[in-house]
Amino acid sequence: MPINEVSENYSQANQDLFVLKVLDFKRNGTYLEIGANEPVSLSNTYLLEKNFDWTGYSIELKQDLVDHFNRERKNICECADATLTDYRKILQENFTDTRLDYLSVDIEPASNTFAALASIPLSEYRFSVITYEHDSYMDGQTYKQEAKELLESHGYTLVVEDVKNVGNPFEDWYVDSTYVNEEKYLELKSSGLEYNEIIRLDK
Q: pLDDT over 90 for what percent of the chain?
């Protein structure tokens, strides 16, 4: 299913389209989502589940959102504090492979987002694509930079830096360049662009 056959997407800044394009519109992929929020609107993973049969595991702090998610979605959402979660246990219990296709990290504030990322056993598990919300327009560069150093130390390549939404840089997008062929992401490599300048349904 090429991108022009996807009639609708749901994520805030086209994260779902980025993941699909980099991974050749893969079917039956896997994801770990930290900060699920709504099950459909602004979801980074709904399109993956709905149209491409991905399986995954989501974490969300607010019980009402978890209940809503689990009513609407087939994949699981757990009510938990993402900064205190045992990610090794979740990964071992819910995935058979040490490679997952997508990691979405999107909670607030930036200190919590980094704490969650740093809690993931990155030496044991690999993610082909990572979208990381740093909210530098509100919280400064500290946690954005710490996340960059951490991910690059584990062999990830920053492909799209400082994705902007209404002029506010809030997210970085990475790939595992040992797994994702360079030609798949080189054309998308950019910095400081509005999300709708990076990837669109009409491309």
A: 74
